[in-house]
Amino acid sequence: MIAVGRSAGSGILRYALRRIAVMLVLLVVVSLLIFGMVEILPGDVGNLILGQYATEANVELVRERLGLDRALSTRYLDWMGGFLTGDWGDSWRLGIPIAPLIATRLYNSMVLAGVAFAFIIPVSIVAGVVSALKKDRLTDRVINGVSVVSITIPEFVSSMFLILFFSLLLPWFPSSAMVPEGAGPLTTLRYLVLPIIAISPVLIGYIARTVRASMITELGADYTRTAILKGLGQRTVIRRHVLRNALLPAITVIANQIAWLVGGLVVIENVFNYPGIGQLLLQAALVQDVPLLEAIVLILAAILMLSNLAADLVYTLLNPRVRAQVAGGAT
Amino acid sequence: MARLRTLLRSPGLTLAVLVLLGWLVIAVLWPLIAPYGPTAQTLTSRYAPPSAEHWLGTDNLGRDVLSRILAGSRSVLIVGIAATTLGVAIGTTLGLCAAFYRGRVDELLMRSLDLLMAFPIVVIASVILAMLGPSQLNLIVVIALMLAPYNARVVRSAVLSWRDRDFIAAARMRGESGAYILFRELLPNIVGTINVEFTMRLALSIFAVATLSFLGFGIQPPTPDWGLMVAEGRPFYQIAPWVVVAPAAAIASLVVAVNVLAQRLRAS
Amino acid sequence: MSAAADVLRVERLTVEYRVGGGALSAVRDVTFSIDAGEAMGLVGESGSGKTTLGMAILRYLPDNGRITQGSITFDGTDLVPLGRRELSAIRGNRIAMVYQNPASALNPSMRAGEQIAEVYRAHLGLGREEARQRAEGMLDLVQLPDAHGAYDRYPHQFSGGQKQRIVIGMALAMDPSLLILDEPTTGLDVTVEAEIVELFADLRSRFDTAILFISHDIGLVATVCERVGVLYRGELVETGATQGVFERPTHPYTRGLLACRVPPGASKDSRRLEPLPAGSREPEVDACSFEPRCAFREPRCRQEHPALFASGNTQHSRCFFHETVAAAGPPAVTEVAGRTAAPADNTLLDVRGLRRVFRSGGREVIAVTDASFTLAPGRILGVVGESGSGKTTLARMIAGLEVPDAGTVRLADADVTRLAHKRSVEARRALQMVFQHPDGTLNPSHTIRQILRRQMRMLSPGDGADRDETLATLLEAVQLGPEHLDVRPRQLSGGQQQRVAIARAFSTSPGLVVLDEPTSALDVSVQAAILNLLIDLQQRENASYLLISHDLAVVRYLADDILVMHRGEIVEHGPAAEVFDAPRDPYTRKLLSAVTVHAGKVVRGGPERERDTAGGPIRA
After folding, report:
1. Same structural domain, A157 and A276
2. CA nearest to C431 within chain B
3. Distance between CA atoms of C527 and C537, rounded to whole angstroms?
4. What residues contact C260, with CB distance under 8 A and at least 6 apart?
5. Mean pLDDT across the stretch C528-552?
6. Contact check, Cβ <8 Å, C421/B167
7. Which chains have 3+ CB pairs within 8 A of A?
8. Superfamily of domain B11-35+54-267
């Protein structure tokens, strides 16, 4: 029996809770991995903080102060405990508390990412749908050609070209994205244009291709034929039948692309001097600032897993067959 | 051979193949072609724009950009090809095992790989390389490990699509061992997929190498490396743009060529 | 049949596909017409162009297909020059279509009722409520229980038969003048099929729709249609009243097609099947396309292209010698000198208490429950059942492709209740299998020689010396030649691939061969030849067969004993004649009565005919 009855609703709820529980377990596993990876690897903290000419004794002192002489498991529990209670420790390099630092940087990155997605998602969906509808004709070939090129060019390469053309030769946009204090939304946008254009092609390329492939499959499906043979107009067929089924998989792809976006941010923020979390990660990695590094990676991991989970749940809710399966108690 | 000929009929593909072959040749023969030593400094002509003596100009230390570009092709290609080969080897094996043995093995493997794939390559690689220290070998291993999951997925689904065919059942019925079925019955049918996969991962691999070098996790100066050259040239982009544009263009050409090849292979 | 009463008049229709560099004619110069309220069948095998014809009438061809000649006059208007908008107004409204595979014909993310309602909204401009009401009325009319609840359900919540009813509901929603059906019951269980045929009869008595029924199954067409046309390679080779064509075919192809059907009620012990000889040739402009396979051919057939000649009251035939064909009557039945089956007292295969349960997502599905039976050497045991009966799982457990959850399988007194690769070499040699789909049964990247040699090497390692000779003999036994040895499977036809699979199974002279739907994926004309081959091989090798099939006629013909399975249980077990003539189990009876839809006994319905139930005398 269909109908979103109470039993169906609670089935979905139970499914969601189960997935969240799994995600939390995975997060713990990931935290162990991160901790292990970073702590076990070589790198001398003492010299990092005190400089190359520090004496042995002082280096030892520093290690003791930072509690690095304790057992691994104690350190891990300490770290996790602190993390969960909001005390994320201090950055070795900068000496300031990590939590507020990450918070600000994360916020900045999310602004950039948000604006970028606001641009990317509509463009790529439209590109995918249009190229599917005009399959193998000129529009499709052009879009395809462009996306083949844009997917593979590393972000830093395209950034360099963008800066060359639109900042150096034609002084339209600033080459550094450090938005001045108190700037209005329009000015902010002007600063963000180049970074967003630099980071978009890869994502647009992937999403557009997936949407295109999905559209082509659904356009060739039997039920599409049925709809046409029922006498429905082409627009109606696409709108009511094809799009619904074709765009559903796009949700999952978009969620996957968030991971790409984060990776791209590391490069883009570096190139454009944008004070986001990607830049912070890079700086921390280059100097082996362990607590900062661990905190950033864990936060990113949590964000990525959350977004994948959210996409999964949205997909489940929107796909009637999967929803019924889930509500009925299937895994 | 006939397939090669039909493939070459398209101008885009021919161009891509030529570019790729060109870089491969340069990577091997650059000592014979480069006009100057890549680390030879001429401090009297720093930031020199492109001219007859220096076709692509010189950088901040007076080194000939053209020679550095030619020399830098080697590291990109070595790391790229090695990482891809290693990654595809690992990924294919994992994918074959997961698809063939199903059950717990499959579940475990796929979930771990899913976890790995959820993270951006650049992030994980940066962290690992930061701790391990940058070197060519580390780069190869890290990139290979990042590529393997994608490859494993593709191989796994290819095998799964063949696994339930009746000829596999017929093989079981005559008592073939698991290894025989995997390698003599299944593998020949997915060789094409693996080839395509290799090329696609190669494009990704070069992407990763260039990016990680740019960020500072790859080869260290003064060895010429395209990504590194872009990073080094950034501070003086306004004064001497050719120092950045040349390696950037080189990366773009190589990466696009490989990708065009990969797309064409996949389409056929 | 005056032209004025025609709902559909197709004249000289030719449809071509642009393939590679050239053009392929799928439909050539086809002319026929259908009266209001009349049901006409179109019979053809694969490659006959019947589906293309159906699609062409609705002007729904793929990008590379074109109507290059002819007219399609529907209710006075020629459909060929119409544009997209005009066609949209006609489709679903005055001409509707139902085709195969109802599961994929419905949009999985749209509610069932809505898919009917949108027809009303699109063509009548009705509002939501009104459209919903009428859609529910339609669901009722196609006999779906609880029409109101059904409206809100999604397609995956219905069974195959129910889905097809919904599709039929969508098609008849606007009371179209013409309904085109393309293999509407293929793929459905036979009991469901019978219900759908009943539904047709019922609906025909309410609606005055003309019907074009396209199918490969001439028996089914005969059950449903008053008139029939036979297509061969894109051409109409015979048309006429169904009864006439059935009883007095006037074209060699029709005659051959009718003859190679497995006659209901016949068994291998009394008569042989008459296969159509193989032999295909590209249709030529100035020759008869059937000539290479024709038993009546004369030199004229290779020099001139025959037109449609009047060959009877209502019949037309595309054969110069139709009178000879008509006079020849049905092909002489080759009587088999009263063959007796092997005695049933020895036991080759002993199955006890086999049980298999599948667990998926927390639910248990019992595939096979407590199956027990024995099979004597040299006897053929047929296992029949519909989907979900468990017959395939049973076969796979016996073959060693799955492990039973309980029970034992003994072969020649040795316990083989385990996976095939864990059995002894002798056991593997003694039990082989032939599978259903010819295109998946051979490894596409191996040659035939490699496939057969490997089989022999694994199972009879000792006789390496004369292997090449054995290969030649093997191929001969399945009517293939040495030229087939070094090719890859994709270069062979479906029938040829299946022959190789049979050769592979018999290469080591097994005592028991499990056959899982060995001819279901083949054309009728190929099927007869393969069945004859299977019988001959069985006789020669004195092998036992475990024959799994949903096709009761085939099983009746081949099997000495029969098992009927329903929902995992064996509900009937006995000698073939007994089970078919005097079934004891109610499910078996239901199955047997459903099968008659393929027998060509009339269940037509329709406005001017009297309805008749299957099996009764035919009234006109």
Report:
1. yes
2. B173
3. 15
4. C273, C274, C275, C276, C524, C525, C527, C528
5. 90
6. no
7. B, C
8. MetI-like (1.10.3720.10)
Separation of alpha carbons B256 and B240, rounded Å:
25
Whole-angstrom Cα distance, residue A264 to residue A113? 10
**Do A162 and A265 reside in the same domain of the chain?**
yes
Query: Hey, is A143 helix, strand or coil?
Result: helix
Domain C1-94+176-261+275-330+599-620's class? alpha beta
Q: Amino acid identity of C313?
A: N
Question: Do residue A141 and residue A81 come from a single domain?
Answer: no
* Mean pLDDT value across chain A: 81
**What ranges do the domains of chain C cover?**
1-94+176-261+275-330+599-620, 103-173, 349-593
Chain B, chain C: beta-carbon pairs less than 8 Å apart: 56
CA distance A310 to chain C (A): 21
CA B163 to CA B173: how far, in whole Å? 14
Q: The tokens 């059906």 sit on which residue?
A: C181
Claim to verify: residue A151 and residue A267 sit in the same structural domain: yes
C349-593 classified as CATH 3.40.50.300: yes
Chain B contact present for A49, CB below 8 A = no
Phi and psi (nearest 5°) for C318? -95, 60
ipTM: 0.82
DSSP run (H or E) holding C515 = strand C512-516
Contact assignment for A288 to B245 by CB distance below 8 Å: no
A69 domain-assigned:
yes
A236 in contact with chain C, both atoms CB, cutoff 8 A: yes
CATH number of the domain bearing residue A108:
1.10.3720.10
- Answer whether C91 touches A (CB < 8 Å): yes
What does the buried/exposed string (b/e) look like for C98-121 if buried means 16 or more CB atoms within 10 Å of the residue's CB? Answer: bbbbbbbbbbbbbbbbbbbbbbbb
The mean pLDDT of chain C is 86
Residues A325 and A203 in one domain: no
Does C284 score more than 80 pLDDT? no
Cβ-defined contact of C421 to B185 (cutoff 8 Å): no
Give the separation between CA C306 and CA C288, rounded to whole angstroms: 6
* Strand (E) or helix (H) holding A216: helix A185-219
> Is residue C487 exposed (0-12), middle (13-18) or buried (19+ Cβ within 10 Å)?
middle
Residue A276 has pLDDT above 70, yes or no: yes
Could you list the pLDDT tens digit for every one of the 268 residues in chain B?
555 666 667 777 888 889 999 999 999 988 888 888 878 787 777 888 888 878 888 888 888 888 889 989 998 999 999 999 999 999 998 988 888 887 888 888 888 888 888 788 888 888 888 777 788 888 899 999 999 998 999 999 888 888 889 999 999 999 898 889 988 898 899 888 888 889 889 998 999 999 999 998 888 877 888 999 999 888 888 888 888 999 999 999 999 999 888 888 887 7
Contact criterion met (CB < 8 Å) for C400 and B165: no
Contact C243, C533 (CB under 8 A): no
- Taking the model in full, what pTM does it have? 0.84
CA separation for the pair B100, B185 (Å, rounded) = 12
Q: How many CB atoms lie within 10 A of CB A33?
A: 13
Q: What is the pLDDT of residue A327?
A: 66
Confirm if B247 and B64 have CB atoms less than 8 A apart: no
For residue C111, give the nearest of C82, C154, C169 by alpha carbon. Answer: C154
3-state class (DSSP) for residue C289: coil
